[in-house]
Amino acid sequence: VERTVQAGTGETSSITLLFTSPVDTVDGALRADTDVVTEVLNTRLTDVVREQLGESYSPSAYSYIRNDPDPVVETYVYITGAPDRIDAVGDLAIGEFADLAANGPTDREFDGALAQVREDYGFISNEGFIEELVSDAIWPSRSIDEYVDEYLALDDVSTGTVQAFIARHVPADHYVSVSVVPR
Predict the structure, then answer these.
(1) I need a surface site. Which of 66, 104, 121, 125 has the fewest CB within 10 A?
(2) Helix-strand-coil percent breakdown of the chain, rounded to 5?
(3) How far apart are CA 67 and CA 77, in angstroms?
């Protein structure tokens, strides 16, 4: 689904992409893959959209798991740019995701993403742990063990699991795209 909306002021446009994919089981492996994929997508967008093309200063992507009402993986992408190029930038992002699904991340992309997630996992805060305890109470189908399993599963994340995740959960032919252009 693709829509263009005229709104806002100024000469900047944005494109938002949303990929949604149902999952049967949410476990530590899926969570770890999700976190690494977020970093890989951000690296690819930054390298191509910002560094190579100079189209947007801060393209971003975020993959996450939503549990309610049914578990799904959602990937949200947001890119700003010139109004006359915003659709091309969106198409470029989709093309890059298709490349990641077909060929996987480069070693540099994967190694950098894995290192960033390892560092992030190293910062366990009381707030984060309490949030996990509350989630465990709210969603009985989710166990606090998943929180621990996520850390342990990081050792099993590979370029292959990242490639398979992107192919399944960020399909280049199934998404919602909303472009916002100036009035």
Answers:
(1) 125
(2) 50, 20, 25
(3) 20
